[in-house]
Amino acid sequence: MSEEIKGYFHSKETFGTVDGPGIRYVAFMQGCNLRCKYCHNPDTWKKENASYTMTVDELIEDILKYKSFIRSGGVTFSGGEPLLQPEFIEQAIDRLHSLGISVAIDTAGFYNFEKAQRALTECDLVLLDIKAIDEDMCKDITGQSNSFALKVLEYREKIKKPVWIRHVIVPNYTLDYKLLEKLADYLKDFSCVEMVEILPFHKLGEYKWKTLGEAYSLEDTPVPENEEVIMAKEIFKSRGLNVH
Questions:
Q1: Residue-range domains of the chain with CATH
Q2: pLDDT tens-digit series, residues 16-38
């Protein structure tokens, strides 16, 4: 039996198709130290507001109900920021690997790297959210530096394990072609980067900010035009990167 460490959860998705390869069980963990201006799940920020808790044994029991569906995919830990709960994630990875189930972690990199290092080493895939390649812009968007995410990427390159990059393009912020070129030029030399996902900014979570009494600063920010998304993707394709 696993040591009784409890994981704090926001929600789950049992037939996920956008958080890693194949069909996946997606566990959305509670708690995040970033305050992204475009966050569509601000209700995940505070750990104490978790919808429920589970031990590793309870989580594995739940995941196994869906094993036949996720056989070609696996399990993804998302959030919030899952690596704010590194011991829980480590134990879950060990158990899932013993059952032949692959594990992905969707992370923005802002946590104690040393505590999270084993989870970052053992997981099969990292979905890495790089908020902005320009550090000042990253601080403006998230409240924190981009150096943490870049350290995760450099570590996965060192241990030769795959990464999918996620990058949200926001008009007046990251939807800037010079910055996109800078990011593409940075990424093209990493052999661990298997894919770059360009995600257009949306406002689907705006109502949550209002419900929580939080000020939403992007109310007047438009969503990107389809042509702008295509042009952004072309920048990364022109550097030989696999773009989704």
A1: 6-237 (3.20.20.70)
A2: 999 999 999 999 999 999 999 99
